[in-house]
């Protein structure tokens, strides 16, 4: 008998044992074929061109995990292995719970101090509600920007720093003269050069503690210890790239991976004694002998699963059953010569099969019952037949040959044969009766389901087998689609296809639906139709509108603390939140409401002061009193009279002297009245100007006088205006009128 040497290949992680020699399967191996040498990967390993190395192959892949050995998939916790090739998360709620715990399938229970906003999201409670702030945790308010806490749930606006200035609004400080705001919005004295110092007065700089002036008279920081770094502030050292501070505030080199070693330079690690770097540049323990195990510490070997240490402290394989053989790997027994493996047991082998017997020892047959060894052929047992054959003919001891259309049931009885009788009973040759739950279709017994199998097929009575990409649902008759990555905020409607819940919309990631708020400008959408406004905005009628801490007078709030004036108004330079109406009033003055009040002798027509032309009294129902004539509607008017008739010479001479004396007296009185009225007029004009400028609120009546309302008329000439101005010189007056006084109530202004 010729003996052959059999080499057993054993895979241990990335190492393989061939004929007792260890090889690294992560590298290409040299193989001889004929007279030529080839480089190839180990069996079930594939070549990776990018790394020029070999990696194990998992036939069905390793979705969500790592293929660590041929057809061995390893998952990263908390993922678990599913179907030996897929890493899936443990059972959870379909939608992650926010501020809550998933206590049952699709059931979230809020933490203490939280209430449900929806089925899966809980929000903190604050009682009472936060004023000028946000509830960030149960009964914990965070003040809005520009506010400080006054009570637990009440925040008030503040100016964090307003020394040397006036706080005019939250965090809006107006500096005093000679001061300006620094980068921290603090009013500080202004110096032309005072970096890293304190400007104690305008252009007077004193270095801050921890700083000293250099040769250029510039304050620079001082650090006691700043090796491998730059001193950026007093005793504040900023480490160079590749260095970081330790607990003693000293810059030391940083290594991405330096366990079991010392980092002596950036990403340069020196292993501790008893450790050495592996192919991933990681310091791992070194053992002198650790075959079939893992070196967990220097010279400390832990045997792999399926191995145990023998009396020589070497990890040897363990087999449950290895009679007549040698255990060469865990539960892998190599049979001794003359034995072969059957059902994981080493059984004796014969050169020829034992007919009607079994091989009990190498090349030795033991006959079955009712058989005996053939004297001529040691591997043949002759049969005996003692029991009568049913539907068959006995062709050997206790062995019957069935009649045509029958097959053996046991050694003496034959049963009828049907070509197709799965799930049925064959009662005669080719005569099949189907079992309960099956019906005959085209001579085949097919299973019957009370309901149709949605997305699947009926594979047994009332049992559905789902199509690929589907799984059975609770009703056992319909198959629901499977989405491997789940459907966050949605429902799986087809294999790996999600449909978002109401209030959610698709995102860039196919299996994730994000909240949809429709319009959430100036805010952020935190849940379905739930919009949280940004700082400085509040929700009004479903929109985030800006907040102005001071009301906008004659304007509207268009951004946080920013007003825009209404049409026809402009901003006040000293008060941005106040808008005033523009007023242009030629021939008049603007009152405190920016309304135009025309000067006497003018009237407002289409927002313009137009000069009032005197009318004839007979055309406006005028009336004269004390030589003053007024129309019914209040306008001055002129009364036309007939020329006096001539008398005799004596009468005229007397009249001339009387008229002369009366004229002189009248002129003196008229001049006196004009002067007094003129003084009153000028003072009133000055008072009006001051009142408009200062916005006074004086009450009562004011007398406006028109000293130039002496009107005259010439024969054939036009009527003069109320100021006594005519187209020609004031000669040949035939009619004169006394000065006119117009009384106007100031409350009407």
Task: List key phrases describing it.
single chain; 749 residues; mainly beta; three-stranded antiparallel beta sheet; two-stranded antiparallel sheet; 1 helix; elongated; disordered N terminus; disordered C terminus
What does this protein look like?
The chain is mainly β and 749 residues long. Among the domains are: 35 residues; 135 residues, no CATH class. It is built from one helix and 81 strands. The strands form 40 sheets. A three-stranded antiparallel sheet has the order 1-2-3, with no helix packed on it. The chain is elongated and about 195 Å long. The termini are far apart. The N terminus and C terminus are likely disordered.
What is the tally of beta strands?
Answer: 81
Given the helix and strand composition, which structural class is it? mainly beta
> Which whole number gives the mean pLDDT?
78
**What proportion strand?**
35-45%
Low-confidence stretches: 1-13, 642-655, 687-749
Supply the number of helical segments.
1
Describe the global form.
Answer: elongated
How do the strands line up in the largest sheet?
A: 1-2-3
Q: Give the end-to-end Cα distance, rounded to a whole number of Å.
A: 136 Å
Produce a short descriptive summary.
This protein is mostly beta strands and 749 residues long. Helix content is 6%, strand content 42%.
Sequence-ordered SSE layout with sheet pairings:
Elements: E1 10-12, E2 15-18, E3 21-24, E4 29-33, E5 36-40, E6 45-48, E7 53-56, E8 66-69, E9 72-74, E10 80-82, E11 86-88, E12 100-104, E13 107-110, E14 114-116, E15 122-124, E16 133-137, E17 140-143, E18 147-151, E19 154-157, E20 165-169, E21 172-175, E22 179-181, E23 187-189, E24 197-201, E25 204-207, E26 211-213, E27 219-221, E28 229-233, E29 236-239, E30 243-245, E31 251-253, E32 261-265, E33 268-271, E34 275-277, E35 283-285, E36 293-297, E37 300-303, E38 307-309, E39 315-317, E40 325-329, E41 332-335, E42 339-342, E43 345-348, E44 357-361, E45 364-367, E46 371-373, E47 381-383, E48 392-396, E49 399-402, E50 406-408, E51 414-416, E52 424-428, E53 431-434, E54 438-441, E55 444-447, E56 456-460, E57 463-466, E58 470-472, E59 479-481, E60 490-494, E61 497-500, E62 504-506, E63 513-515, E64 523-527, E65 530-533, E66 537-540, E67 543-546, E68 555-559, E69 562-565, E70 569-571, E71 579-581, E72 588-590, E73 596-598, E74 602-605, E75 608-611, E76 615-616, E77 623-625, E78 628-630, E79 637-638, H1 649-694, ...
């Amino acid at each position: 008998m010729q003996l052959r040497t059999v080499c057993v290949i054993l895979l241990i992680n990335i190492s393989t044992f061939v004929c007792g020699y260890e090889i690294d399967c992560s590298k290409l191996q040299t193989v001889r074929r004929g007279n030529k040498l080839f480089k190839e990967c180990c069996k079930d390993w594939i070549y990776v061109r990018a790394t020029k190395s070999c990696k194990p192959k998992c036939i069905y892949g390793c979705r969500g995990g790592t293929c660590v050995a041929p057809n061995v998939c390893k998952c990263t916790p908390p993922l678990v292995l599913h179907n030996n090739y897929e890493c899936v998360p443990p059972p959870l709620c379909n939608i992650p719970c926010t501020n809550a715990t998933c206590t049952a399938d699709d059931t979230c229970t809020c933490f203490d101090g939280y209430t449900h906003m929806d089925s899966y999201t809980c929000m903190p409670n604050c009682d009472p509600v936060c004023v000028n702030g946000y509830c960030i945790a149960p009964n914990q308010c965070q003040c809005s920007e520009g506010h400080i806490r006054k009570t637990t749930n009440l925040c008030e606006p503040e100016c964090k720093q307003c020394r040397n200035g006036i706080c005019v609004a939250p965090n809006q400080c107006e500096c005093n003269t000679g001061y300006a705001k620094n980068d921290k919005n603090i009013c500080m004295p202004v110096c032309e050069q005072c970096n890293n110092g304190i400007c104690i007065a305008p252009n007077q700089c004193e270095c801050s503690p921890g700083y000293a002036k250099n040769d250029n008279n510039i304050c620079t920081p001082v650090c006691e210890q700043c090796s491998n770094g730059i001193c950026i502030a007093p005793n504040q050292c900023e480490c160079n790239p590749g260095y970081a501070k330790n607990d003693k505030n000293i810059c030391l080199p940083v290594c991405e991976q330096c366990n079991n070693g010392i980092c002596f330079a950036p990403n340069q690690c020196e292993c501790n004694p008893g450790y050495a770097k592996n192919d991933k540049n990681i310091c791992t323990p070194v053992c002198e002998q650790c075959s079939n195990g893992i070196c967990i510490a220097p010279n400390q070997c832990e045997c792999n699963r399926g191995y145990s240490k023998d009396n020589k402290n070497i990890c040897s394989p363990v087999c449950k059953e290895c009679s007549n053989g040698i255990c060469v790997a865990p539960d892998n027994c190599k049979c001794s010569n003359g034995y072969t493996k059957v059902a994981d047991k080493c059984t004796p082998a014969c050169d020829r099969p034992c007919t009607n017997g079994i091989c009990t020892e190498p090349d030795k047959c033991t006959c079955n019952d009712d058989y005996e060894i053939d004297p001529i052929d040691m591997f043949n047992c002759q049969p005996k037949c003692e029991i009568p054959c049913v539907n068959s003919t006995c062709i050997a001891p206790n062995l019957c040959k069935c009649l045509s259309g029958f097959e053996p049931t046991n050694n003496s009885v034959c049963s009828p044969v049907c070509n197709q009788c799965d799930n049925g009973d064959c009662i005669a040759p080719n005569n099949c009766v189907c079992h309960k739950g099956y019906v005959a279709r085209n001579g085949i017994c097919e299973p019957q389901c009370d309901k149709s199998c949605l997305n699947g097929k009926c594979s047994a009575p009332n049992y559905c087998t789902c199509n690929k990409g589907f799984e059975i649902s609770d009703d056992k008759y319909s198959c629901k689609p499977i989405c491997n990555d789940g459907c966050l905020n949605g429902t799986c409607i087809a294999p790996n296809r999600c449909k978002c819940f109401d209030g959610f919309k698709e995102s860039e990631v196919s299996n994730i639906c994000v909240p949809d708020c429709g319009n959430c400008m100036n805010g952020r959408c935190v849940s379905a139709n739930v919009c949280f406004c940004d700082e400085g905005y509040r929700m009004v009628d479903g929109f985030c509108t800006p907040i102005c801490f001071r009301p906008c007078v004659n304007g509207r709030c268009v951004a946080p603390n920013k007003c825009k004036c209404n049409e026809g108004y402009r901003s006040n330079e000293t008060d941005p939140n106040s808008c005033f109406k523009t007023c242009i009033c030629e021939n008049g003055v603007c009152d405190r409401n920016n309304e135009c009040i025309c000067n006497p002798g003018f009237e407002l027509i289409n927002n313009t002061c137009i000069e009032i032309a005197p009318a004839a009294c007979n055309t406006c129902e005028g009336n004269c009193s004390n030589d003053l004539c007024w129309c019914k509607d209040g306008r001055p008017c002129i009364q036309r009279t007939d020329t006096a008739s001539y008398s005799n010479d004596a009468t005229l001479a007397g009249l001339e002297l009387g008229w002369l004396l009366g004229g002189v007296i009248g002129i003196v009185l008229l001049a006196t009245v004009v002067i007094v009225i003129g003084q009153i007029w000028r003072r009133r004009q000055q008072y009006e100007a001051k009142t408009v400028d200062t916005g006074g609120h004086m009450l009562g009546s004011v007398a406006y006088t028109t000293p130039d309302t002496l009107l005259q008329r010439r024969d054939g000439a036009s009527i003069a205006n109320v100021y006594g101005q005519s187209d020609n010189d004031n000669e040949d007056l035939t009619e004169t009128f006394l000065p006119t006084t117009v009384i106007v109530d100031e409350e009407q202004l």
